[in-house]
Amino acid sequence: MSQVENRRILLIDDTPAIHEDFRKILVDRSPADELNEMEVALFGAKPQTAAPRFEMDSAYQGEEGLAKLRASLEDDRPYAMAFVDMRMPPGWDGVETIERLWAADPRLQVVICTAYSDYSWEQVLERLEVGDRLLVLKKPFDAVEVCQLAKTLTAKWQLSRQAELKLAVLEDAVRRRTEQLGAANEALQADIVERRRAEQETVNAYRRIADILEFLPDATFVVDGEGTVIAWNRAIEEMTGTPKGEILNQGNFAYALPFYGTRRRILIDMLDDDQETLERRYSGIRREGKTLSAEARVLMGGEVRDIWSSAAPLYNMQGARVGGIQSLRDITELRRAEQERSTLEAQLHHSSMMQALMIQLGHDLKTPLTPLFALLPLVRKQLSDPALDRMLEICQNSVNQIQGLSSKAQELVRLSCRQTALQPVPVPLSSAVECCINGCATLFRQRGITCVNAIDPGIVVEGSSEQLTLLFDNLLTNSARYAAENGTVRIWAELEPGAVTVSVQDDGLGLKPGQSGMIFDEFFKADAARHDQDTQGLGLAICKRIVLNHKGRIWAESAGIGKGTTIRFTLALAEKGIK
After folding, report:
1. In b/e form, how buried is each residue of 368-385, taking b as 16+ CB within 10 angstroms?
2. Does residue 99 contact residue 126 with C-beta atoms inside 8 Å?
3. DSSP string of 170-238?
4. pTM of the prediction?
5. Closest CA to 297 of 337, 271, 260
6. Cα–Cα distance between 579 and 571 in angstroms, integer?
7. What are the chain's domains?
8. 78-130, pLDDT tens digit by residue?
C-alpha cells in the first residue's frame, strides 16, 4: 500500500440514507465530470481536473465496522480513514467504536459525524488518545466539506505511512551503521591487541620453528634463496650420518653429497622448473600446487635404500620467494612389505584356486566311483574263479582308496575354507573321545589294541562338536593303524589356565628325528616304503587344520623309531571348564 495512493474509506452509520449520500459525494461520478469528458472528446478542450473518487465500504454498526477493518488488515488493504456516527443504537456508540478501531489499527484517520452527542468534547478527549487522528463533522454536513475531509485525511494517511516507511529505513540504516561502527571499533581494538601479540610472537617465531624442525620425524633440511643450507634436523643427521656442523651454511648443492656422493641438482632445485621440463628430464616427479614429490633409489651406508621426498618453496610476508624446504623418508621397509603382501595375495589367490579345484575334483570323482563302489561287491559274489575274484578285490580296494582320498581331500578343503565360520559350543571332552573310541572299536579289535580314556569326565572345552569328533576320529584311527600289535593307545588331558592339553599316545612305529614337524603336512607318511592303501596321508593335516580353527597348537613327540608317538594339542576351556 506504500507505493499506491490509498483512497479506501470506511463509513459506519446506522442510517442507510447517510450511506447513499456519502456514496454520491465520494464514489459516484458527478454530471459535471461526465460533461467535461464529453467536451474533451468532442471539441478537444483542455481537460479540467476532476474531483478525486474514493473506494468506500459501509457498516451499519460498530461491531460490523470493526470486523471489516480487521478483514482489510488481513488482506493488506487497510482503510485510510473512517466516518463514524456518534449515536448508533442499539450497538456501540461512536466513542467505543473509535476506541476499538484504533486498538486494531492506530493509523486510521477518523471523522466523528454527529448532530447530538452523549459526550462532551472534554469527555471524548479524556477517553480517547486523539492525537491528530480525529476530526468532527456536524450534521447536516456539506458535500464539499465531506469531500475535502476525505481528500485531506487520506492524503495525510498516505504521507504518514510514507514517513513511517522512510523513518524505518533510516532507523535500519542507522542501526546497521552503528553496528558497523561498533564492529569496526571492536576490530580495530582487536587488531591493536593482535599486532602487539604478533610483535611478541615474532620474537620467538624463529626459535619455535627451529625447534619444531629439529624434532620432525622425517629427515628435513632448509635452504635460503641462495641455496645455502640453513637448517639440518636430527632425523636427517641419523639418515645420512652427516652432522649439521659439517653442512650448515654450505652452498653449491652441498646437501646432495650425502645421498649421491656428488654435488648435483635434487628435488628442491626443481621447484621453479615448468611441468614440461620436469616431464622431459625427470620421471616419477609429481606436482601438487607448488609442492613436488618423488621417489628415488640411492646408495647410503653401502646399502641401496628407497627414499620418498617432498619439496616446497618458502615465502616471506610480502610473498617473495626466500628459500625452500625438503623432507625425506626412508620407505625401504614399506616397499619390502608391499612386495611381501603382493606375494602373499598371489599365494592366497593360488590357494583359493586350488580349493575350488579340489572341491570340483572331489565332486567329479564321486560320480563314477559311486556305481563301482556299489557294483563290485555284487559282481564278486557271482564269480567262482579265485583269480578273477582276487583281481576284483584289488579293483575294489583301489576304488575304496580313491573314495577315501577324495573324501579326505574335500574334508580338508572344507575345514581350510575362509568362509567356514566356527560355531563354538561347550563340549564334554571325555564323552567326545569315548564316542570316537566306540567308532574305532572294530579296528582296535582287529589288531588286539587296548584303548584307555584317562580324561577327567568333568572337563568341558569350547569348540565345534562336529570338528572335535572328526579330530579324535582321525587321531584314534591313526593310532590304531600305527600302534604295536596287541599294544595300547592312551588318551589323557592336563589342565592349564583357561586351556587344556590333550595327549594321544601309541606304542608303535614312532618317528625318525626331524619327522615330528612334517607329519602334519599333506600326504606325508612316516614309513614311505609301507604301501598302505587304507591311508591317504591327509588325516593329521585335517587334525592340524581343526586345531588351528580352534586357535590352538598341535605337535608330535617321539623318542625314535619303534618307541611310539604322542600327539599333543591344546583347546580352550569352556566358561565353566570343570563340572
Report:
1. eeeebeeebeeebeeeee
2. no
3. HHHHHHHHHHHHHHHHHHHHHHHHHHHHHHHHHHHHHHHHHHHHHT-SSEEEEEETTS-EEEE-HHHHH
4. 0.38
5. 260
6. 17
7. 8-166 (3.40.50.2300), 215-330 (3.30.450.20), 337-415 (1.10.287), 422-578 (3.30.565.10)
8. 999 999 998 888 989 888 999 999 999 999 999 998 866 666 777 777 778 77
